[in-house]
């Protein structure tokens, strides 16, 4: 004989079996439940996988700022902005590097010039002393050296030794004496004082030196005062040295500090 309690326990089992035997609606997969458990689940609590994916995608777009095509356009605009900024920074760095290289070369040249031409004013003043020694020797009368006076001869030799020593000292400091005699007149180093008619030598040939000229480095310390020929044949043009091809990427002297 079945008691009321047994009937009550058997009823939920029967209902569960009947619910399991009922066909499940098409397209309904694994159920998604609200909350953390399955207790109290109803038909309204079930959510299809497709609806759940759409909901999660919408939440992600809202959280991370994704908005499909609009997000892609924004990303491309940001990338273009960063590329432009990168190009601007690179251009500034290249210009800064070029300025620093020009500054380094200019500083090196200025230091070299300062060392070379530091004695310019002193050397120019000493040229007057050298000229006086030369005038002393030129003022000697002809035959005075052969007069037989030992003291006079020693004096003349002393003046000559002093002049040579002075020239040697100036050469050690970069000052050199020009040698224009017999050469072609160069307006950069010579100063023409008069012309000498002469048809045997090319025109503008230095025939006489009135005053010696000096140079320090590649600069003229004092131009040589000379007399040049006139009436002779034209001087042959100076030979042009072949141009030297510069190495790729290596600036030549004419392109420095450009």
TrEMBL record:
<feature type="region of interest" description="Disordered">
    <location>
        <begin position="1"/>
        <end position="55"/>
    </location>
</feature>
<keyword id="KW-0346">Stress response</keyword>
<feature type="compositionally biased region" description="Low complexity">
    <location>
        <begin position="11"/>
        <end position="21"/>
    </location>
</feature>
<dbReference type="Pfam" id="PF01025">
    <property type="entry name" value="GrpE"/>
</dbReference>
<dbReference type="GO" id="GO:0051087">
    <property type="term" value="F:protein-folding chaperone binding"/>
</dbReference>
<comment type="similarity">
    <text>Belongs to the GrpE family.</text>
</comment>
<feature type="compositionally biased region" description="Low complexity">
    <location>
        <begin position="229"/>
        <end position="247"/>
    </location>
</feature>
<dbReference type="InterPro" id="IPR013805">
    <property type="entry name" value="GrpE_CC"/>
</dbReference>
<dbReference type="InterPro" id="IPR000740">
    <property type="entry name" value="GrpE"/>
</dbReference>
<dbReference type="GO" id="GO:0042803">
    <property type="term" value="F:protein homodimerization activity"/>
</dbReference>
<protein>
    <recommendedName>
        <fullName>Protein GrpE</fullName>
    </recommendedName>
</protein>
<keyword id="KW-0175">Coiled coil</keyword>
<comment type="function">
    <text>Participates actively in the response to hyperosmotic and heat shock by preventing the aggregation of stress-denatured proteins, in association with DnaK and GrpE. It is the nucleotide exchange factor for DnaK and may function as a thermosensor. Unfolded proteins bind initially to DnaJ; upon interaction with the DnaJ-bound protein, DnaK hydrolyzes its bound ATP, resulting in the formation of a stable complex. GrpE releases ADP from DnaK; ATP binding to DnaK triggers the release of the substrate protein, thus completing the reaction cycle.</text>
</comment>
<dbReference type="InterPro" id="IPR009012">
    <property type="entry name" value="GrpE_head"/>
</dbReference>
<keyword id="KW-0143">Chaperone</keyword>
<feature type="region of interest" description="Disordered">
    <location>
        <begin position="229"/>
        <end position="258"/>
    </location>
</feature>
<dbReference type="GO" id="GO:0006457">
    <property type="term" value="P:protein folding"/>
</dbReference>
<dbReference type="GO" id="GO:0005737">
    <property type="term" value="C:cytoplasm"/>
</dbReference>
<dbReference type="GO" id="GO:0051082">
    <property type="term" value="F:unfolded protein binding"/>
</dbReference>
<feature type="coiled-coil region">
    <location>
        <begin position="79"/>
        <end position="110"/>
    </location>
</feature>
<feature type="compositionally biased region" description="Basic and acidic residues">
    <location>
        <begin position="1"/>
        <end position="10"/>
    </location>
</feature>
<dbReference type="GO" id="GO:0000774">
    <property type="term" value="F:adenyl-nucleotide exchange factor activity"/>
</dbReference>
<keyword id="KW-0963">Cytoplasm</keyword>
<comment type="subunit">
    <text>Homodimer.</text>
</comment>
């Amino acid at each position: 004989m079945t008691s009321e309690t047994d009937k009550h326990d058997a009823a939920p089992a029967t209902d569960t079996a009947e619910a399991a035997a009922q066909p499940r609606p098409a397209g309904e997969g694994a159920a998604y439940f609200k909350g953390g458990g399955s207790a109290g689940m109803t038909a309204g609590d079930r959510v299809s996988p497709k609806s759940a994916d759409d909901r999660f995608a919408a939440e992600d777009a809202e959280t991370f700022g994704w908005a499909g095509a609009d997000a892609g356009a924004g990303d491309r605009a940001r990338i273009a902005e960063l590329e432009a900024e990168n190009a601007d920074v690179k251009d500034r760095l290249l210009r800064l590097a070029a300025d620093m290289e020009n500054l380094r070369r200019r500083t090196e040249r200025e230091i070299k010039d300062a060392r070379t031409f530091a004695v310019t004013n002193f050397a120019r003043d000493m040229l007057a002393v050298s000229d006086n020694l030369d005038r002393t020797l030129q003022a000697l009368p002809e035959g005075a050296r052969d007069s037989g006076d030992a003291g006079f001869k020693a004096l003349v030799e002393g003046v000559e030794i002093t002049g040579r020593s002075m020239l040697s000292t100036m050469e050690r400091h970069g000052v050199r004496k020009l040698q224009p005699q017999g050469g072609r007149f160069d307006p950069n180093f010579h100063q023409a004082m008069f012309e000498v008619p002469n048809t045997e030598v090319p025109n503008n040939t230095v025939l006489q030196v009135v005053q010696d000229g000096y140079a320090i480095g590649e600069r003229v310390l004092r131009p040589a005062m000379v007399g040049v020929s006139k009436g002779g044949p034209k001087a042959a043009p100076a030979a042009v040295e072949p141009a030297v091809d510069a190495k790729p990427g290596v600036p030549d002297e004419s392109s420095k500090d450009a």
